[in-house]
Amino acid sequence: MRRIIINRNLNRVRSLGRERIVADVPDYGCAPREPVDEQVWRMLAELPRQQRTVLVLRFFLDLSESQVAEMLGCSVGTVKSNSSRALAKLRAILRALDSTVRSDEKVNIEDRLRRLLTDNLPDVPTWSDPVGRIGDGVTRRRRRRRIASAALAISVIMLTSVGVAQVSASRTDHTLRPGDSDVVPWQQKPVNSVTVIRREPRPDSRPCNPSDLTRSAWTEATEPGVVTLLVANNSDTRCTLRGTAMLTGLEQQSSARRQIEARALVAEPEPLGQHPATIDPGEPARIDLRVSDRCSDPAASVVRYLDVEIVTLGRSIPVAQLELPGTCPVEIGQWYVLPPPLYTPFVSASIEAPKAVQRGTQLTYVVTLRNESGNALPLSPCPITVQQISGQTSKNLLNCTDETLGAHQSRRFEMQMWIPADTQLGQNRLSWMAVMGDGRVTVADLATGGTPLVVEE
């Protein structure tokens, strides 16, 4: 409404002085304006838009300062300052142009401007209450828009409800419900050890060059207190990475990069690791860190290192999202390679799990095992499942209800895993692997290494 009133009245002021076409020629014209008034009109048109708008609303519509402030969406002080500046300019013009006004005489510019804006106007038909009339029109239009918006919102809600109902009826729910007829129920049968057939060790090859390694390293939690750093071979040929590495980091208190105190790792956490790390193109080399926040000296100051980098072959490689405590020395091992397992051909698996799980609770999810070959897949002896999240590993026999999985068939299995109370919070990854009777494996979601899972408090 504010903009409508302002525009209508500014247009009316601009139209003054234009020739008007009427049905009958009047007997007399409008009273001629005085030369001084003509100058004031020209200066009024040259005022800044905000000042001109304030004068029109104040002296043409005769609105109060608070009403003008409400219409323009500004403070009363802003209205007063714009009005004062505009009137001062017009008052100076009157003193300079009107010989009847002495330089020391106070000019009542408010009355003069009100007369110019009202008394000398042609007799133009108008509403008796323009503000109220326009306000009523705006209210009617807003009411119609509200009714149309409400009708549209109701239609969208109804269509959305129908669509959600249809999608819910057809989609696969990732939350396992008791009584799902197509899911083989969970059965607790823990296993202590598992034998996996892996690739034969590679013979030593040419030494890796600094440029052969990827620009960044990443981490993998293998067991509590142990972090594995991985750097891949980015070249086109096989190479061998041997020895150990150094660590540097930004000290949190001083923001200075320092070498992190580290000592040799006595026992290698990964018994299947092969030293040195002879890696094929794209294959990662690994090095284990044993990290602890507890020292023999209880008075040791707490120091943390951010933006950790691993230094090998004279090159610093940043490690994504790794912070290390500086209170205790870090134990670091030797570069090694974990030979990949041999996979069961034409068999795949996928995980259906909730997006988040709380610490100290049981995680229940579903794994679908698919036989994509033209022959039946033997399930006797039952495969051993290996579940892992944030370094926590669980081994259990799969609940085999049948001895085979038919050609081009799939079967869904309920899985359960306890999430300890000390599991790392935040974004994690749930991985699942089935070790068949011949030692070959099937890894769920092999391309991504599992499914993302948020661990909450």
Strand content: 25-35%
The secondary structure category is alpha+beta
Count of extended strands: 24
Q: What is the mean pLDDT?
A: 77
Taken from the alpha-carbon principal axes, the silhouette is elongated
Continuous helix count: 7
How many angstroms separate the termini?
A: 52 Å
Percent helix range = 25-40%
Described by strand count, sense and barrel closure, the largest sheet is: 6 strands, mixed
- Can you tell me the residue ranges where pLDDT is under 50 for at least 5 consecutive residues? 16-22, 25-34, 120-127, 159-179
The value of Rg in angstroms is 41 Å
Describe the protein in words:
By secondary structure, the chain is of the alpha+beta class. 26% of the residues lie in helices and 27% in strands. The chain has seven helices and 24 strands. The strands form six sheets. Strands 15, 18, 19, 22, 23 and 24 form a six-stranded mixed β-sheet that branches. Strands 2-3-9-13-7 form a five-stranded mixed β-sheet, with no helix packed on it. It is elongated. The model is unreliable at 16-22, 25-34, 120-127 and 159-179 (pLDDT under 50).
